[in-house]
Amino acid sequence: MAKTEPRSLYGQVVAITGAARGIGKATARALARQGARVGIGDLDAEVARKTAAELGGNVEAFELNVCDRTSFARFLEDVERALGPVDVLVNNAGIMPLGPFDEEDDATTLRQIDINVIGVMTGCKLVVPKMKQRGRGHIVNMASMAGRAGYANAVTYCTTKFAVVGLSEALRAELRGTGIELSVVCPGVVNTELGSGLNETRAVKVVEPEDVADAIVEALRTDRFDVFVPPLAGHLWRAAHVIPRSAAEAVSRALKADQVLANPDESVRAGYEARAAASDPGVEERAAQVDPAPPAGEKVTS
Question: 8 lies in a domain?
Fold first, then answer.
C-alpha cells in the first residue's frame, strides 16, 4: 500500500487560542513557516499583538476570552474576516494551578473547568457547523499526559485533561465521514511558564514548546489523531495498559513518574500561578454562590 504524501499547509487559515506565549506561540511560528495564515487569540491582547508583530506578516492577533462564548465567536469571525474561512482550530488555551485537592478553593476548580474544558467544547461547537458545510477542517485539542494518567497535586487539572481526551475521541467518532479531522495532543512536561518549577525524572524529560509545535504540524499534515510529545510517552502509556495496574503503578513509583507534579518549586511558579488566577474574569463571584459544605461532623438540617 502506497504511503500517503503529507499534505501542504500553505494558505491554510489556522486559529489558535491562548497563543500569546508558550506552546501556542511556538505553534503559530511553526505554522507560519509552513505558509499558513494564523490568527492568534489571547486574553492578554497586548502580548498577543507583540507576538504577532514578532512572528511576521502571516500572523494576526485578536483578543479572546475562551470562557465567554460571545468573545470566542467574535474571535473566529475576526480571523475569518482578516484571513479567510478557518481551516484549522487549535484549542490550546489552558491553565494548570497545582496544589492538594482538598485545599483547592471553588474558584480555582471552576476556572480550570471553564478554560480547559468548556473553552475547548465551545471552540469545537463554533467551528464544526462551518467545517461541515465546507466538507473539511481540522480541530486540534491540547490535552496532556495528565489526561492519560492521574497525578497527585493536580487532581482538577487531570480531570479536565481526561475530559479533553474523551471529548476528542467522542467527537471524532461523531464527525466520521464529514471531512473534519481531529487530533488530541498529549505533551509531558514542557519548558513553558505553565510547566515551570516541576520535577524532571528518569521517565519524564522536559521538552521544548517547539517540539510540541512540530508534532502539531506533523499531525495536521498526516491526519494523526493521537499525538504524544515526546513519542516515548505514548509508548510507555500503551505499555502500561497491557500489564496489571499494580505493576504499572509500581513501575511509575520506581521511576518517580508519579511525582512529576508533586512538590513543585513554588517560588518559581509564583508568577504563573498569579496570572492563571486572573484568567477567568468573574469566576470568584460565581464561586461565592456555591454553598460551602458543612464542617465535618455537623448535621445538615432541611
Answer: no
